[in-house]
Amino acid sequence: MAANEMIGIARQAKPPRQWLKWLTARLEVRMLLLAILIAVTLSFASPYFLTTINVLNLLDQSVVVGIVAIGMTFVILTGGIDLSVGAVAGLTGIIFGLVVPSLGLPVGALVAIVCGGLIGLVSGVLISYFGLAAFVVTLGMMSIGRSLCYIFSGGISISNIPETLSDFVYTKVAFIPMNVFVLLVLYLLAYLYLGYTKGGRTIYAIGSNAEAARTAGLNVVGYAILPYVVSGALSAVSALLLAGKILSVDPLAGNLLELDAIAAVVIGGASLFGGRGSIIGTLIGVFIMVMIRNGLNLMGVSPFWQGSAIGAIIIAAVLVERLVSRRGAR
């Protein structure tokens, strides 16, 4: 009997070639292999790329766009888009800078995060409840937010940020700076929510087929609004960590941040049509974005050309995603 059981197990076990095919079919594995390839290539292009100082710099540069990309992942999974994240980050940073002298650091930070969430709530209601196009609503919110940045700040930077915020950002947790630790914790929470809760599964269902999700009795409107609230709140969190790094807030802070966030999510393998994507893929996409920009800086490439490179990467990622989708449909 034992011999027959062993034979059955051996027959069911996948041969090495099938295991390799299964692994490479996984989105996260493909993105990780791409990230490793880029890292190896850049290490040959610049001897400074894999130094300890530069690796820590890469992690530090990943924090702001990485946190915003979490919210963008939630939004894109539903088939939406949020073009206002950069303006929301700038506006909530200005609000924080204005209220922190009188309210203190903890309350001021809470006010900024709540304001970010409320802005996302307004966008989400207009999009999900009233049926307006996400592109139009968030584009309008981007314009309003950027305008309010200049109105509230008077067009100048606010530099009365408490030094305790900087101390918090650079406090070490097991040799990891606090801002990087916050980034990793937020990704862990997002991973658990999207993968192991009813809300996460509902977000995927809305992106795949909203009508089918509604027919199945899911709260489509509520869970379609939630991603915009998360996106707005996390934009505020990124603004706070950025303010802690430079001890000032500027009305131009977060400019074009939406481009980097969308690029990271798309490079991470998410579909702009919704229903497909991975928070781990987004994290890898963030690292790919930051590595490319950092490598171009180390190689002395002009910042003006870096925008062209990032734009080309976005187009290429969307093209590959479309080709993979067509191949999967067949």
Automatic annotation (TrEMBL):
Keyword Endoplasmic reticulum: no
Recorded topology in the membrane: Multi-pass membrane protein
Transmembrane helix recorded as keyword: yes
One matching Pfam family: BPD_transp_2
Subcellular location: Cell membrane
Any single Gene Ontology cellular-component annotation: plasma membrane
Transmembrane segments: 31-50, 62-81, 93-121, 127-152, 173-194, 225-247, 259-292, 304-324
InterPro entries for the chain: ABC_transp_permease (IPR001851)
CDD domains, per database record: TM_PBP1_transp_AraH_like
Keywords: Cell inner membrane, Cell membrane, Membrane, Transmembrane, Transmembrane helix, Transport
Molecular function, one GO term: transmembrane transporter activity
UniProt name for this protein: ABC transporter permease
Organism encoding this protein: Mesorhizobium waimense
Lineage: Bacteria, Pseudomonadati, Pseudomonadota, Alphaproteobacteria, Hyphomicrobiales
